[in-house]
């Protein structure tokens, strides 16, 4: 069942969505420097490696282009990385402070990852709002999320629903040097905000991973398009993949339900079934309508939903946007064995 708004039309939502991002009164801005989404995808150089976090980019006129100047928005004040949607609580290195010229750091400085986390989570939330969530549709995760950049042994990042914050690790390439790792973790935060404690089973966990990969791709493509958008975490994955292109995972794989489920079940691997369905919806309907349907449907998921039930909920949500949209969403799930 849809939880809200059966009378909304696609046209009305899209028009309203284009006007939806209005920063709260008093929100400050400051210049920042980031990767967008990451140097491998941005520069199209698959041979880049971490080199122990050294800044070998700045001295190279070609690699230097990976540092992008942006405006950090929604800050509580221009002095620190705390704002409407993110509060950076770094456990590694000094907290980033505005140098006077803004938050301009390079990858060898711990503050660079803090700026990345602030910028990309804010961009992800603004993208979601641009679809109408928080104006014509209920808000989705429109709150301040805490982010920790943490020096611990493993190469991993995670979202803790009990603390409603995100931790980004520093194994291999620092996780927060890749926007798609940051937005993947934010994807878990989004789903937890929509359905408390989402992802308690093998199927729902796989949906969580598949959606988070998909959100990383669609936000990355909206903010900083690259030639191979289906590749997730092109830069972070240079630390642990040998095949080219380097991708943590892709959202355009061919896995089919149920025979391609991993045995024993593994949420990230099985999530590739779900992310491919979402990718196909995007290919058929365009990013903005697809993402509106995909995110809207998640309000109807239960914490322990199955892929079949969640596909059914998403097909129902698409019905609000007309028969053609519903047909495309049905086809995307049918191609995966989920409808
Ligand atoms: Ca770094
Ligand atoms: Ca890493
Ligand atoms: Ca990518
Ligand atoms: Zn995940």
Explain the overall architecture.
The chain is α/β, with parallel strands linked by helices and 339 residues long. Helix content is 38%, strand content 10%. Strands 3-4-6-5 form a four-stranded mixed β-sheet, covered by helices on one side. Strands 1-2 form a two-stranded antiparallel ribbon. Helix 6 packs across helix 7 and helix 7 crosses helix 8. The N terminus is likely disordered. The site of one calcium ion has 7 residues, from loops.
CATH superfamily: Neutral Protease Domain 2
Q: What profile does the largest beta sheet have? A: 4 strands, mixed
**Whole-number count of domains:** 1
Q: What is the class in the CATH system?
A: Mainly Alpha
Mean pLDDT: 91
Work out the strand percent. Answer: 5-15%
Bound molecules: calcium ion, zinc ion
Oligomer: single chain
**Tally of DSSP helical segments:** 9
Specify the structural class.
alpha/beta
The total of beta strands comes to 8
Q: Distance N terminus to C terminus?
A: 17 Å
Poorly predicted spans: 1-20
Helix content: 25-40%
N-to-C order of helices and strands:
HEHEEHEEEHHEEHHHH
Overall 3D geometry? globular
Features:
339 residues, alpha/beta, Neutral Protease, domain 2, four-stranded mixed beta sheet, two-stranded antiparallel sheet, 9 helices, globular, disordered N terminus, binds calcium ion, binds zinc ion
